[in-house]
Amino acid sequence: MADEQSTVPLHRQLGLTDAEYDEVAQVLGRTPNDLELALYSVMWSEHCSYKSSRIHLRRLPTTGDRVLVGPGENAGVIDAGDGIALAIRIESHNHPSAIEPYQGAATGVGGILRDIFTMGARPIAVMDPLFFGPLSEPRQRWLFDGVVAGISGYGNSVGVPTVGGELTFDPCYAGNPLVNVLCLGALPTERLVLGIASGTGNLAVLLGSTTGRDGIGGVSVLASAGFSEETEDTKRPSVQVGDPYEEKRLIEACLALLDEGLVVGIQDLGGAGLVCATSETAARGRVGMDVDVTAVPLREAGMEPWEIMTSESQERMLAIVTPANLERVLELCGRWEVRATVVGKVTEPDLGANGEPVGVLRIRDGFDGEVLAEVPAASLADDAPLYDRPLSAPVDLEARRSEDPAAVGSDDLSADLVALVRDPAVVYRRYDHQLFLNTVVGPGADAALLRLAGPGLPPSERGIGLSTDSNPRWCSIDPRHGTALTVAEGIANLACVGASPVAVVNCLNFGNPEHPEVMWQLSEAVDGLAEACRAFSTPVIGGNVSLYNESSGRDIDPTPVLGLLGLTERLQTPPPGLGLTEGHHVFVVAVPGAERSLGGSRWARERHGSTGGTLAHLNYAGHLELCALVASLVATATAGGAPVLSAVHDVSGGGLAVAVAEMAMAAGVGLTSDAAFDLEALFGEGPSRFVVATADPAALGAALEGHDLVLEPIGIAGGSSVQLGPLGPVELSTLADAATAALAG
Amino acid sequence: MSMRVAVVTFPGTNCEHDAIQGLEAVGAEAVFWWHTETSLDGIDAVVLPGGFAHGDYLRPGAIARFSPVMAAVADFAAQGGPVVGICNGFQVLTEAGLLPGALQKNAQLTFACQPCGLEVAQTSSVLTRGLEIGQHLEIPINHFSGSYVCDEATLASLEANDQVVLRYRQNPNGSVANIAGICNVAGNVVGLMPHPERAISPLLGSSDGLHLLGSLVSSLPAHR
Fold it and tell me: What's the domain range around B17?
């Protein structure tokens, strides 16, 4: 368990503070033994317990008409209508990916799939927001290629389409890349299950892979501490190894068990392994559980009980079943060649000091053997200490905000544009994004658009919009407003495929919570998220917090990543998409007075290394009205009605110039505009602005009647170059070559 | 009565639901057929769908050829029954010796999921009856090991016997002679890397897959 020669006490070697050790002793009313200490060290780790972030997360709005399951379960679930529910979750696998990019990314996919099918849902889509340092550095290229190969290798094989994601490159991620993964699942609403153990005498059946020494202490050693330059090699044994074939069979077996109603509750084994799954299911059901540590099928001989209980070996699930159903459970698992072993039994709660029921987790050497550890299940799962860590704004914040990023000017606007275009197709080609025949709009667009369909679901005409969004450049200037703008951006992305937002999930990637500036960033970001989600009526139904993203003492920029889930009523034909059509009229449609700023823009950051300035204002009501109108115009078209718009794209990173360039490249049709654009108009970033194209400007004008929105003509699509006032002309072939080269190896 | 098609499912297969949807779109009755089955009684055609049968361990199709159902598939093919292998199914058919050649890793050594332009190269196979030689089809590919390879004598006999069924218009993976799909000499066993079941609706970007699946189910009398 630890270095026996060391003079450092065991609890500290395991990552527990002296105060936490005292709290464990107080919970137990005695000195914990070594096995018990190991259990607490993983369950009370930052990764499992959210001990630094929980008091902040309480401020998020989490309820709404469609919400069936909110935060705290394995995944959030909403009612999508037509008897179908959607389960969604987002997670990080940052630290493992920094050390072993292929397996880190692969097991990130595997882990989140289990969170989804634990709820009874079949995983139907994955998205991967990724953040690296500049690709000009060989190590970043190695990390990037490894992560993409891991997602491709695992995701394609396990049979879940990867329908989108994001790619961000910034020096702040060079020592600590971010690998986030979002998964969406679908289920007939009546099949919804929760990870609850109940019924004394019921059996805890471990399904799937054998248990080995991989990933021991992953949550406490890896995910809950920063990196120094020496740690990477010594931490490699804490990275798990994935097997998508095992996971595929596990998915099919678990869905088959759920279809036949054979399980009382089911829970995945992820961070903190068996101790987490057994204590959480018991705590939720307010029961006890006996675990026979000798019953667990092992991958190697000589494993100690603490290793068996905390191993993070992948592709394992824990199902709670009645003794009467055991035979059928074993039979179904046998068909799918999935190992199934009874490792635990649900027990009556003990009586506490005041006569209250206390579910006790007992780790035993054989069911009738010696008790090796005996702890209240809820104390592991729910009673980790809560920290209200000190927070303070960075000292340089006001100085940075008073900078004017536009002051440096531009001596070559065309070169600026060429440097900012990027074509992610070379990455997305490596992901199967089509499986299940639902993908109407795949990766690389504003948002993905899927049919609401899948094996075993009732029929529906609806569509699902899905987008992941983040903007660390904005959030480093103003984490509160930057996060609110990121929510607005996600809603605009959904509008481009005709979807109206229904729920948000978040993955909060931040630096070291022991730095007051980082806790301030986290607190501000939560407030911005709460404010925007209240204003847009989009409840936050799940999330994940990844802290200690730092390298050699430098924290990453605050990186809240949001997943937005939207719905369309009727999906019959594809939405207009990005591509321009020769002769069509191109406009910007916007909220009157919508601001844009070069502060936190890609232009300022990537071309000039600027980290200062201020962000554009966000008019919530105006933004909602604009997005609702665009979404309804697109949705009318996807429902089979007359399309008013022939192209639509939201203005985001890189501003209007990049948005127009992307639309021109998409169909190989250019645009020439003689409008007088200044630097801010070309590359400034802000909310509430779309570029649209139409064959019928009068119809578009009519659609805007009665709305407090403005329509600015840009030009008429045509030609083989892009010219925007003083910028250009830039040939499309030049843009396309630069966009491809930006990511090519 | 509609044709009854067995969609053979190995552990690790993942396109079985899509194959069934595609076959139903052209009016077939499609049923899952687990890899441990030893007969194909009552079946009019067999589809081996895409995925990663037995995890693609060792190499794609290398373990699947030993699944019990494959002996029944070989008998069925020998009696003239239509057998179509899509993607991983094509790999299984070559490993099982029901089609010549092999599928090796893509020339670019990365997975490729993308739309693909195809040209119909012959119209006597069970998958291309009713189509026209030279007809263009837009059907996606989705594979890591899709580069068709065979020795020169095999290639010469494939060409001589009109066994090249589909060719890529722009070669996406380094396949010899731009081969996207082949058949046996009799034309009743076909393997192809593109996924016709992924091109069954304008909503998915193309409906051209319906021509191929339609050929399979409509141009043949019920087999038995």
Answer: 4-223
